[in-house]
Amino acid sequence: MSARSASTARPSRTPWRLLSAGLAVAVAAAVAPAAATGGAGHSGDAPYRGKVISQLRHMTLEQKVGQLFVIEVAGRDADAPSDAAKAINQRMYGVDTPAQAVAKYQPGGVIYYTTRNNDDNIGDPAQVARLSNGLQRAAVSLPTRIPLQISVDQEGGALVARFGPPATQMPGNMALGAGRSATDAKRSAEVIGTELASVGVTQDYAPVADVNVNPNNPVIGIRSIGSDPGLVSDLVAAQVRGYRAGGVSAVAKHFPGHGDTATDSHFGLPEVTHTRAELEAIDLPPFRAAIAAGIDSIMTAHVVLPAIDPGVPATMSHKILTGLLRDELGFDGLIVTDALDMQGATATYPPDVAPVRAFLAGADQLLVPPQMDTAYNAVLAAVRSGEISKKRLDESVYRILLHKHRRGIFRDPFVDPAAATQIVGAPEHRADAQEITDRTTTLVKNDAGVLPLAAAPRRVLVAGWGATTTQSMATALGARGATTQVLESGTTPSQAAIGAAVAAAQTADLVVVPTYNAYAVDPKTGLQTASAQAQTRLVRALLATGKPVVVTAMRNPYDVASFPEAPTVLDTYGYTAHQIESLVRVLFGEVDPTGRLPVSIPRADGTGELFPFGHGLGY
Question: What range does the record give for the signal peptide (predicted)?
């Protein structure tokens, strides 16, 4: 202050509104993320800044720490779950009901599951809508009146889809990659988002942005769009827009990339050996595209990336989450960990260490820690001790509250259960799913000219993987005049099952063999798994009968490398009802097989490609 200003200053009380305004500016400077005023992919936070700052000022330390956590709850009713669900909630949290768990921890979010921990959250649409409403009532009745972010893993396809029928089953990522259509990818996400929003889900942990360049990847595979970063980037961006159009926020996962791993991070800690140049060329483009498309959240991967931070899982790495994702890629939205009870996290970090390390690395939200009391108290203690600064805590809570304002969760957290029953599985959604799926089936080989099948009576043996899959195929074939026999042999056909299939083939005019990861390799031995070997023996035994054999790879498209002599091979990239219907439509020429391989197929001996990226036959 200058001498002149000091001598002329008049002693007076600062008006409250000016003091309040000054305080607001000071708090904003302290808590608002540096990019929050308009970073890449996001509109500015100006419309909500004052509200968020006011909420932060009135929150206790305990309430702020609670907002960092996304928890699971057991039961289909927020207030009156089954006795079995009560026992699970007691084991996890020491309370009976989901509503009581929300009241105890005041978490930022809840995630729905079906079979995990027997949580059993998901029944019919009206029930889920009522559960969502009950959880939101529990949240907004607390002193902070902060609604929940309610999340789920609904990626589409046959693998990670918590909502089964009547929810519309879209074809999944790799199938969309085969279809090559950004329009279809956007519409698929929009349908999923619309149905999730109707039951009170506000966020979908999708799309998967991993580039699957490892045919032996045990956890990603068809969850990925494909092996080409450009294709993955285009369709990921389209899905981000589609989820937003459907009314839910999207989460791109698993940063910085889980597409070249040979270990499932649910059961171990994978290492991605990509160089920095490979990371830039392969793994990061889809995340950059998601950010440019306005992605709300990005999920971390429990993988080690030595090129950036040797020995440290990405979830716990400040260099990766803050240095790479925040600073280099300019992402200013929410960073959420993958589940902290996965072995990729728990094998290295104890339950009281993992959440603190992830938060210090740059994560905003901590997903399902294995011991909630331990995790909550560890983070709270770290803040009280100064290990986590209050400024750092406020930055994450600011982002979480800002997200809920932007997504309209504060404005209207409740849904109409009656409307949900009309929206979930709506006829137009199912029609769109079938049309999109019809554009994804890939005809890899048709050397014998068996396809398309003529419309004529025939005896068809369906022998191979999947009780539901084989029966559904037989039903669809029967609807087209075939007399069918089904011999389901599981993932590891016994010699007796193979012998029975060979005997049954003798009286068949056509044999259809669905396979399931018949190319899978054991990373410990480098050899085919027992399951893959058995399925390969089944295919070769049926080929040896001399009967026309159609092999259909129902999961990963690499199966043909195990039996390259098979003359007729198709890929479906999944086994939803729509995918099986599309397969049979292609068999009969009712639709043209327009899908193209979204990955390259290697030769089993490692001598190069059997089929290149983009390969696919038509009629």
Answer: 1-34
- Amino acid at residue number 369: P
In angstroms, the CA 614 to CA 179 distance is: 10
C-alpha torsion angle, residues 336, 165, 177, 617 (rounded to 10): 160
Domain CATH for 460: 3.40.50.1700
Q: Catalytic annotation on 274?
A: no
Instruction: Quickly tell me which residue has 């709270």 as its tokens.
Output: 380
- List, in order, residues 6 or more apart from 20 with CB less than 8 Å away: none
* Averaged pLDDT score across all residues of the chain: 91
Span 39-68, pLDDT tens digits:
333 446 889 999 999 999 999 999 999 999
Cα-Cα end-to-end distance for the chain: 84
Q: At 72, phi and psi to the nearest 5?
A: -95, 155
Domain presence at residue 168: yes
pLDDT in tens, 271-325: 889 999 999 999 999 999 999 999 999 999 999 999 999 999 999 999 999 999 9
Whether residues 454 and 391 fall in one domain = no
Q: Verify whether residue 522 is a known catalytic residue.
A: no
How confident is the model over 358-395, as pLDDT tens digits? 999 999 999 999 999 999 999 999 999 999 999 999 99
Q: Of these residues, 79, 124, 264, 266, which one is catalytic?
A: 266
The catalytically annotated residue of 338, 364, 432, 559 is: 338
| 220 and 166 both lie in a single domain | yes
Token representation of residue 122: 């998901």
Please indicate, yes or no, if residue 37 is contained in any of the structural domains: no
Q: Are 582 and 438 spatial neighbours (Cβ–Cβ below 8 Å)?
A: yes
For the chain, how many structural domains are there in total? 2
Q: What is the DSSP string of 283-307?
A: IHHHHHHHHHTT-SEEEE---B-TT
82 and 150 in a single domain? The answer is yes
Cβ neighbours around 204 below 10 Å, total: 26
